């Protein structure tokens, strides 16, 4: 096996590694501990290897700093560096002409800038596509960008010219963290928080809701009807999306209260607001806004826009896509659901059409939230179980052995 990675090295959420931020899941829900607590690649092994285990135990916090978890990710990845080609961007994926002599299936061809790579099977894990609201889709650049680029862009502003005004679109944990970090970094910058809801919403931290991160829930969710999947997702959505931790909300409210005492309006909250249009207006971005309930229209001119607008799942609804863009050449070779999305088995495998029965095994890794539940794409929590399922089924597919023998 060989891994292709577009980045120059292992990185976990590099655009959101802000000082003072922590992770939002139990650190033992790491790469491997839930599946194999004795593995040498768990988070506790990382702490021990870096002589920081007792310091962590004294931290008296359930969640380590985000910067520490990013180092854990790199520490594990470094053990397997010989199996990874970094700085390798996949440009397309298609069926090759050659066949696997053992199974007779066609090989999969991954095209990169440095040439093509052939394989008997593929585990496809590019991360979900960024959700870019339509008004901003043609304006992306140095001053209009998705929140996953935030730290890099902010550091560029530090060296160059800081923006006098910024709009942060969205009301998620990431949006509020960016508001706070922007204010701490550029206290004179005017920050506009723009979102559709009435208020920022508190994250659902009920331990009963967290049961959605049990492996058994993946089985339950997968077997549910499409209608039930949507209902279940909506019920637990606040555990991971469009919601904010209590301490972060409290920090922002205290800050705005303190600003109100001083008559400081450097952070402005524009709730109940839709973005209708956006365009360059001279050297600024003019955003046309509409109050969702009063119908009042307004225009906001800013120097930069941060889109804390999340990611796209597979589907045909708003902010969804039927397939990942890199799957465009494979899309017609594998079976579809009635809504046009690709059919995915419980073990994350695509199903070849009858006309393409010799197509190679393709697995979707971290793209199946709409079919496997909220624990699939946006969380570390079930990663070890998903990896086990994919490895087991992929091994059977390329070896010709039965799953029961593995």
Q: Would you give an account of this structure?
A:
- By secondary structure, this protein is α/β, with parallel strands linked by helices.
- 26% of the residues lie in helices and 20% in strands.
- The chain has ten helices and 17 strands.
- A five-stranded parallel sheet has the order 7-14-8-9-10, with helices on one face. A three-stranded antiparallel sheet has the order 3-4-5, with no helix packed on it.
- Helix 5 (173-185) crosses helix 8.
- The longest helix has 17 residues, at 246-262.
- The chain is globular and about 75 Å long.
- The mean pLDDT is 94.
Please count the helical segments: 10
Overall pLDDT: 94
Q: Give the helix proportion (percent range).
A: 25-40%
Topology pattern, helix = H, strand = E = EHHHEEEEEEHEHEHHHEEEEEEEEHH
Number of DSSP E strands: 17
Instruction: Work out the radius of gyration.
Output: 23 Å
Class by alpha and beta content: alpha/beta
Largest sheet: 5 strands, parallel
Assess the beta-strand content as a share of residues. Answer: 15-25%
Low-confidence stretches: none
Strand order of the largest sheet: 7-14-8-9-10
Overall shape: it is globular
User: End-to-end distance, in Å?
Assistant: 18 Å
């Amino acid at each position: 096996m060989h891994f292709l990675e577009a980045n120059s090295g292992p990185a976990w959420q590099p655009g959101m590694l802000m000082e003072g931020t922590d992770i939002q899941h139990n650190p033992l829900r790491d790469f491997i501990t839930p599946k194999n607590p004795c593995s040498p690649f768990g988070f506790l092994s990382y702490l021990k290897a870096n002589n920081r285990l007792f310091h962590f135990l004294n931290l008296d916090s359930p969640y380590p700093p985000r910067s520490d978890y990013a180092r854990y990710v790199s520490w594990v990845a470094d053990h397997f560096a010989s199996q990874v080609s970094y700085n390798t961007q996949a440009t397309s994926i298609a069926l090759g002409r050659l066949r696997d002599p053992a199974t007779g299936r066609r090989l999969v061809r991954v095209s990169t800038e440095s040439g093509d790579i052939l394989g008997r099977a593929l585990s496809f894990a590019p991360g979900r596509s960024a959700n870019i609201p339509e008004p901003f889709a043609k304006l992306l650049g140095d001053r209009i960008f998705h929140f996953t680029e935030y730290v890099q862009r902010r550091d560029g502003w530090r060296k160059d010219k800081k923006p006098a005004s910024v709009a942060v679109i969205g009301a998620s944990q990431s949006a509020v963290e960016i508001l706070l970090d922007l204010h701490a970094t550029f206290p004179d910058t005017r920050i506009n928080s723009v979102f559709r809801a009435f208020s920022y919403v508190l994250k659902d931290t009920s331990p009963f809701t967290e049961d959605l991160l049990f492996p058994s829930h993946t089985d339950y969710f997968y077997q549910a009807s499409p209608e039930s999947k949507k209902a279940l997702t909506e019920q637990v959505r606040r555990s991971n999306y469009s919601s904010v931790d209590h301490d972060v909300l409290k920090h922002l409210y205290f800050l705005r209260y303190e600003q109100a005492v001083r008559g400081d309006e450097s952070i402005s909250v524009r709730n109940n607001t839709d973005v209708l249009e956006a365009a360059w207006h001279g050297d600024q971005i003019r955003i046309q806004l509409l109050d969702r309930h009063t119908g009042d229209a307004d225009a906001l001119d800013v120097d930069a826009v941060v889109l804390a607008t999340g990611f796209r799942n597979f589907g045909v609804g708003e902010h969804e896509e039927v397939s990942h863009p890199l799957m465009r050449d494979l899309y017609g070779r594998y079976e579809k659901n009635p809504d046009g999305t690709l059919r995915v088995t419980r073990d994350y495998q695509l199903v070849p059409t009858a006309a393409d029965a010799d197509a190679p095994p393709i697995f979707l890794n971290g793209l199946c939230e709409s079919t496997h539940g909220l624990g699939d794409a946006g969380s570390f929590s079930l990663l070890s179980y998903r990896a086990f399922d994919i490895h087991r089924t992929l091994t059977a597919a390329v070896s010709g052995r039965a799953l029961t023998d593995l």
